[in-house]
Amino acid sequence: MTGLWKCEPVTSAVMTVRDDWIDYNGHLNMAYYNVLFDTAVDEVFHRLGLGPDYVKDRGASFFTAEAHVCYLRELSAGMKVTVTLQLVDFDEKRAHFYQELHHASEGWLSATSEQLSLHVDMTARKVVPWPEDILANLTELADAQKGLPRPERAGRHVEIRKKRTN
Questions:
Q1: Phi, psi torsion values for 102, nearest 5 degrees
Q2: FRET pair for 84, CA 20 to 30 Å: which of 15, 54, 70, 103?
Q3: 52: which residues sit within 8 A by CB, 6+ positions away?
Q4: In sequence order, what E strands does the chain have?
Q5: pTM for the full model?
Q6: Residue 93 DSSP class
Q7: CB neighbourhood size of 17 (10 A)
Q8: How far apart are alpha carbons 78 and 68 in whole angstroms?
Q9: What string of DSSP letters covers 31-66?
């Protein structure tokens, strides 16, 4: 896999917001933001050796354990979008990554997603270590992206901040 990655977030193929994804508010339904993010994750993980053949040949896969999406700007039907992915961290069983969903031609940011994925043995249905080759592929991606700053929006959480009263 040497030389497969650059010191930049990995960019997905261009995707199109479908008409049937638009909700009664006239914009992209929140569930389909996740479809776009997940499609982009699959592209990157396929390049890491974790595509559909991985499940079939090795009896393992990756599951999302946690995700945090921030919706910043509406998308509507027909818009072309891309998703970028940055590997924030990983260990022997987990991968933490951050994504941004952008309008493909204008470049503005529509949404972000931060996720934690687990490597899972599909027979035992339990979290297990990545195989050596996959760990090497994750290391190569991390090494290529090590010069990138931590995404500003990474590590956010949900809360209602209370105003102080004196």
A1: -120, 150
A2: 54
A3: 46
A4: 10-11, 15-16, 60-71, 80-90, 94-103, 109-121, 126-127
A5: 0.91
A6: S
A7: 20
A8: 25
A9: HHHHHHHHHHHHHHHHHTT-SHHHHHHHSEEEEEEE
CA–CA separation, 120 and 76 (whole Å): 36
Q: Going residue by residue through the chain, which has 166 residues, state the pLDDT in tens, using 9 for 90 and above.
A: 556 899 999 999 999 999 999 999 999 999 999 999 999 999 999 999 999 999 999 999 999 999 999 999 999 999 999 999 999 999 999 999 999 999 999 999 999 999 999 999 999 999 999 999 999 999 999 999 999 999 999 998 888 988 887 6
Distance CA 124, CA 126 (A): 5
